[in-house]
Amino acid sequence: MPPLRDLELSPRRRLPARLLRARSVRSSGPGGQNVNKVATRIDLALDLGAAEPLLGPRATARIRGALASRIDADDRLHVRAGRARTRGRNLDAALLRMEELLREALHITPARTPTRPSRASRERRLTTKRRQSEKKRSRTRLDP
Predict the structure, then answer these.
(1) Is the pTM of this model over 0.70?
(2) Is pLDDT of 106 > 90?
């Protein structure tokens, strides 16, 4: 199996490969008889307890909240990949998916600052409404 690599979450935030464990298991994906003989599916696990000093308690809490369904009783985050026919490709896919999940969990959406429409935009809206109203009014029949 190819060696594990560090997870790059941002230019300044990186998790070392020593926190990861990869295990090969039999896959149910494509491959015909190959599926019955070779363990190509990858089960990748990240030890969140060991990652907490690097990430910080707030970030780890965010991950635990956002990805609770993927975390086991031993506080490990799991990702599985088994689409490809080879271990190497599945390992790459699992590492990419792990990075993606962690980035999404750590992303903080900025709060929207409420704004008001400008005076010009209100004028444009009212002018358009008046024009539309005039157009509709001009189409009505006049009583003799």
Answers:
(1) yes
(2) yes
